Each structure stands twice: as C-alpha cells, then as structure tokens.
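A note from the maintainers: we've had questions about how concatenated examples are separated. There is no special marker in the raw files; a new sequence line simply starts the next protein. For clarity in this README we add a label.
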Amino acid sequence: MAKRRLLATGMKLPDLAGVTASSIQGEASPQQLFDNDGDTAWETKLDDPVNALDLDLGERKSVSSLSLAERGQRVYWNHVYNVELKVRDSESSGWQSILKHTGTLGGPPILDFPPVTARYLRLELGKTRPQHPLQVSELRLFPPLEEE
C-alpha cells in the first residue's frame, strides 16, 4: 500500500526560501497558507481575475501532489477556479505546466500529477466568478507516494 508523506506542512518563511503573491488583500498574507489554521487565508483583491503564488523551495525537491483548501469551506459555498501548477529549475528558465484542473478548492482534496523535481513552483488560480474574492486557507505539497 502506498503512503503519502507531507512535503510542506506548517512551513514558515524560514523553511521556504520565499513565497510571493501577485495580489494581497489587506493583512491576508501568503504565509498564512502554511499556518495550519483554516480561519486564516491568503486573500486576493476582488478585481484580479487570475492570481499567482510563487514558491521557492530553496532546493530541488520532488513533488507529485497538491492540496488546497478554501477559507470557510462548506457545502454549496465553494467557488469554481481554474488551477494551474507550473515548475522551473532556475529563475532564468521558463515555466513548465504540470497540472491543470477546474473545480472547487479542496474538491478533490488532493490533486495528483506525474512526479517532477524542481526548485520553483508557480500556482495560478483563475476565478470563474469575478464577484467573489479568492481566499485560500491552506496549501500542501506532497512528494511521490512511497510503496510499502
């Protein structure tokens, strides 16, 4: 049976070489994505149709899954987003798309993709309903599954 290990959980900025967001509303920083608190969130400005989050893992790491949770997630409230995850090895190389998904954040709870090793990740979230803010409470990255 395969086991899933967490690559990035509870990460604070000292653990990541960097995390930056294309848009921030008020005090809602992208660092709140890693605080294990579903009541805090990275929130974007209402008028931004596509928002990006850039992660620098500090070194090349192997990843194969992503998990996102929307703040206040509950039945009939979730909004649909276009999710795209991209990777690159250096700041001068181009982005390579490794995952495209349209759906609610947290549904499905884990998005799998072919394993890839990279230092930099870019998560792009496109809103399908521009009248709603983007509020992502938690982000998790997973390395490839281990076989037992």
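[label: protein 2]
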Amino acid sequence: MNRYAPLLLLLAACCSSTAVVAQDAPLTTDQVAVIRQLAEQGNAGAQYNLGVMYANGEGVAENDAEAVKWYRLAADQGDAGAQFNLGVMYANGEGVAENDAEAVKWYRLAADQGDAEAQINLGYMYAKGEGVPESQVDAYFWWNLAAAQGIAGAKTNKAIIEKQMTREQIAEAQRRSAAWKPKK
C-alpha cells in the first residue's frame, strides 16, 4: 500500500471546509505539519480544518483561541463553514469574549451563502433578540430557508413562532424567502 495515500486523502480534505478533518486513526505529526503549512500559506480550507482541529483537540492540543484565529483567517476569505464556526465561538464565548452582535455578523455571512446551520442559528438570534433587535419576521425568514434545506429544528421553530405572528407577517417572511438567493 502507498504510505502516502492517507496523506493525499487528507490533503484533498483540507482544501475544502465541507470535508472536515476526521479519520479513524489519530492524525500523524506529518499530516498536521502539512495542514499547518497549507494554512500558513493562506489556504482557506486548511485554515478552517486547522481551526476544527484546535477546537476539538485533533492532532493538536485543544485551544479555542487558536481555533478562533484559524477560523477568522478562513472566514475572512469567505469560507462559510469557518464563518459559522466563528459565530458559534462568539455566541458561546469560546476563545473570545461572548459577543452576540459579533456572532450574528458571522452567522449572517455564512447564512447569506446558504449555510443552513447558520440560518437556523441566525433565526434563533432574531427570535430571542440576541445581538439584533427581536424580529419574528426575520426569525421566520431564516428558519424558512433552513427548513427548505431539510433542517428539522428549523421546521419546528417556524411552526412555533408562526402561532405568534399575523398573516401579514408570515406573508412578508414567505415573500422574502421566495425572493432570496445565496451570495457566493
């Protein structure tokens, strides 16, 4: 067997945030070094994956501040997965001071690209008025988009908030959802 095969699979995975570094065996020192090198060279997928590795303690010591650093570098390049994860870090105060407005900023960037998890979280922020003014219409809008992608929790949340909304508010949120297009 080619001893570089696992590393080649890892390289393919680290170049995309949709392929999170995850394998049965722990990452080797060489694999971590390759991912770090690519991340330091500005590869957004590698930066995202290095952030995941730090957040989960995979191949490196768990370090939320380092995870935030690498997520931010990838997020600044438009990586939706990194933007979502950075939003989670701000929402939970992991590696950074808790800041709902900053969480909303990063959720919105990912949600605008069509990230369903970011959409459900952004809907929650609007429903609770955390980091943004409370808005049932905006909550419904984001949950409607996430529900359209099959996120069961979004369907449930939408059904709950719908009971508190007027027909006009529901129609407005549905109209906005129908007109919405992801930004890439």
